[in-house]
Design goal:
With about 90 residues, the protein is an all-alpha fold. It has a single domain, classed as Glutathione S-transferase Yfyf (Class Pi), Chain A, domain 2 (Up-down Bundle), CATH 1.20.1050. It contains five helices and no strands. The longest helix has 22 residues. It is globular, with a radius of gyration of 16 Å. The relative contact order is 0.11.
């Protein structure tokens, strides 16, 4: 039987699974913030790494990630969000 993410979170271990996944997200946010030290983007120039990382990191509040402790990540998120293509992508579909 296949399980979707909703099944995993609603199962008997749902709360602990969610807590574990949120802890991983917080750890990865710290890794990204360290990677951004002295860099504008994750691999030097804007790349697929930034494109792939932005959507989940942009939801930092929902993940319980406090940007006050991660100034490089805060700067990067603001810079990515201002890119014209990203702004267009974030617009609601009519």
């Amino acid at each position: 039987m296949r399980q979707g993410i909703a099944d995993i979170f609603s199962g008997p271990n749902g709360a602990s699974t969610r807590a574990a996944l949120l802890a991983i997200a917080k750890r990865l946010a710290r890794v990204v913030a360290r990677r951004l030290e002295g860099r504008a983007y994750l691999v030097g120039e804007y790349s697929i790494a930034d494109i792939a990382s932005f959507p989940w990191l942009a939801r930092h509040e929902r993940l319980g990630i406090d940007l006050d402790d991660l100034p490089n990540l805060r700067r990067w998120l603001a810079a990515i969000a201002e890119r014209p293509s990203v702004r267009r992508g974030l617009e609601p579909v009519a």
